Amino acid sequence: MSPRKAAVLQADGGDRTLREHLIATAERLIAEHGTAGLTVRAIAREARVADGVLYNHFADKEELLALALHAHVRSVERSLAEPPRRAGEGDLDANLRAYIAYGVALHLAILPAFAGLLHQPTVLARFAGLPNPMAGGRGLLDELAEYLRAERRLGRLAPDAGVEAAATLIVGACHQLVLPRLLTGAPASFEPIPDDVIDDLTQTVLNGIALPPGSDTSGAGPAQPHASELRRDQ
Amino acid sequence: MSPRKAAVLQADGGDRTLREHLIATAERLIAEHGTAGLTVRAIAREARVADGVLYNHFADKEELLALALHAHVRSVERSLAEPPRRAGEGDLDANLRAYIAYGVALHLAILPAFAGLLHQPTVLARFAGLPNPMAGGRGLLDELAEYLRAERRLGRLAPDAGVEAAATLIVGACHQLVLPRLLTGAPASFEPIPDDVIDDLTQTVLNGIALPPGSDTSGAGPAQPHASELRRDQ
Amino acid sequence: MSPRKAAVLQADGGDRTLREHLIATAERLIAEHGTAGLTVRAIAREARVADGVLYNHFADKEELLALALHAHVRSVERSLAEPPRRAGEGDLDANLRAYIAYGVALHLAILPAFAGLLHQPTVLARFAGLPNPMAGGRGLLDELAEYLRAERRLGRLAPDAGVEAAATLIVGACHQLVLPRLLTGAPASFEPIPDDVIDDLTQTVLNGIALPPGSDTSGAGPAQPHASELRRDQ
Amino acid sequence: MSPRKAAVLQADGGDRTLREHLIATAERLIAEHGTAGLTVRAIAREARVADGVLYNHFADKEELLALALHAHVRSVERSLAEPPRRAGEGDLDANLRAYIAYGVALHLAILPAFAGLLHQPTVLARFAGLPNPMAGGRGLLDELAEYLRAERRLGRLAPDAGVEAAATLIVGACHQLVLPRLLTGAPASFEPIPDDVIDDLTQTVLNGIALPPGSDTSGAGPAQPHASELRRDQ
DNA sequence: CATGAATGAGTATTCATTCAT
DNA sequence: CATGAATGAATACTCATTCAT
């Protein structure tokens, strides 16, 4: 008399609801092929489940997609070595490098999934409504800014360091390293970003590109105020 | 002797070809709603023209899209104050700010248009075949890197400045400032980025966030080598 | 547990699948109007069914056409008295007549269906892939030639009889009797070929048209070698 | 003040009307690629003439096609060595062979053109209304029958020869030799029919395939009346 | 509550025909 | 009378969604 269970779940341990099974299946398809061109039928077939079952558990395709996207992001986050959350520990330099590596890996895994949804505001809105909406760049950005703020508080960064700007630069660089690949190649099988590129980004953010203090281009005093004198005081 | 003219062109000034009219219409639709979900019929209806007329002027939808995209990019570029191409002129600080402002505005206007095409490589390929394929991020990146390299050559930047990294950071930041908006709203409704955000980015790239030379957090010597000593020599 | 059933099937006896219903409908349309100009929508409308339903049961239009064509050919074959397959039995004369009658009736019913496909080789290829690909003329030709060869082996035909030629003549005559009708009317309105036409063909193939042996037109010897002396030995 | 002339005609000698030019162009296209898939635009482009000009000279596409088809048939006829029209002259044998060769060549050139029209009754009706509608098999059939009738009258054929049947068999064989090629291969570049195939057909029609007079299969008298005794008298 | 066939609006593209110039 | 761009109905096919079983 209890409600029928989908065959595919009986084959399983049986401790997963069909709803969860569908989300997991959609998540896997999103991870493998991105969101674009993903049809309801493909999900149902991959889940070894009837087409219409989706509508017993979700309002529509968009709700399922939002949930699957969410699950995808969370599982990507889980699979990556977390960037250092505690300021003051370890090498500042290495910590920053870890953030960059993390951001690149995160975007590499997540951006393709979002690419197909940019014109589906309802999916994104639903996604935003879910707990832990860390993805999309915003979450990482805030976390990094917070970390940098803490480091600044601890005196490991310049007291006038533009931490929000630095966070934007770093997370943005992660996008920039990933985007060109999305425009040209297959979603999977991307080669890793070379270490020296990440090193250069780290050092450049730390030190900037202005002339070092005391240098002189003309021999007759600085033609322009030294960068360190410009800091925040413009 | 001349063939019939489309009704919509007679109502107009009348000196525009239907081909131009169609490109302009598609361009407007792209600017307003992005490329994704843009149908041939929507373009024809918006242009107040029969469905099939498109194929009298373009090989297929993709050709029209590529041309409209191109027109969109060019008109955006035309509407923006160009960044300084000549190194050594003007304020380095102001030049960088101009680049950032330009990049942000460019991406703000252009990214939504490209977003829908991430999975239609053929349109992108056709677009790349058109003259002035500067957009897409790549062009700006190279141009900025080249500018920075020239400034470094002129001695207006640190001799060991990571110009490629800086370019990546800056262009990436432009993406980062725009991407979150893509996930929430319609392209047409995007507001400009505040000036102080751009200023902060500029200063941070120029000066970095490391502790200034000579500063000391513990009074017992630097716990870690000073940033300027790390430069390129690790 | 079972999914919905098409409304049109409920009105029917109800024991037919929609797939069968679609094939039968297409078959009827082919029988009535031939294959050419037959659209997917026409089939769906005639079957009182939604447009897209076709693609739940067939890969594409061509598969349905090939199957309907196949069904048409089989039902025509079933409706016709089969020609004698065993040589040596019955009247040679009557056997031949039966072959001709069969061929004419077959072509009369089948040629219009194939006519529209002369330039759609893919449908023909799929059709050829189905079991019992006897139609199209080739099958009947081979079968008839084989039958005649057997009769010759049994001594019921002249030892030098041109059985392949005879088969070509007979099957060709079947075409010839049908083709002119294709050019003028609708397939459904074709009337059967009169019996005496078939008789004449039979006798002419059996006996030829040359002068009988021993006859003489001029009284001064044959102006040309007698036909029977020409047999195969020229 | 005289009506404008199409540019393409001025380049010509100028003694051809545009109507004739269009018919000739369509004829050439039909000869090269058949009737199927032949578009009005293709004809106009090939004729180097505006699309709409067709409708100044013909009621519609179908009228032009019927006329072009007619012209095609006539020009094919003109290009072929005519079969012997005069009975009593030459070798009967050779004459028949010439008819077969003619029929095969005629059908090879003409059938592809008709293939695409089998479902356009209006084109065919218009074609039938034109003078000299010899094609389609009917014309050749009648001519051959008439020739055979004359030979019979002259005593060069059996007095009870089934000339209509023989004509049907021969013309039909011509179809049969051509049709299989149409179903499988490219319209052009067909290899010629081997001479011995034509010889066999000729001899078989002349002599039939029945047992020769006086032969006996069982030694106990003919199991069935001899073919020559069956002639016309059943 | 699962099933999966049925639905039908929607997609890009073609092409005979019209008609202002 | 020629022009050739404009027209729009038609084509095969897709896919999110529904619903009787």
TrEMBL record, chains A, B, C, D:
GO molecular function: DNA-binding transcription factor activity; transcription cis-regulatory region binding
InterPro entries in UniProt: Homeodomain-like_sf (IPR009057), HTH-type_TetR-like_transc_reg (IPR050109), HTH_TetR (IPR001647)
PROSITE patterns per the UniProt record, alphabetical: HTH_TETR_2
Coiled coil: none
DNA-binding region(s), chain positions: 39-58
SUPFAM superfamilies: Homeodomain-like
Keywords: DNA-binding, Transcription, Transcription regulation
Leader sequence segment: none
Residue ranges of every copy of the HTH tetR-type domain listed in the record: 16-76
UniProt-annotated stretches for the region Disordered: 209-234
Pfam families for this protein: TetR_N
PANTHER family: HTH-TYPE TRANSCRIPTIONAL REGULATOR BETI, HTH-TYPE TRANSCRIPTIONAL REGULATOR RUTR
Record-given protein name: TetR family transcriptional regulator
Organism: Planotetraspora thailandica
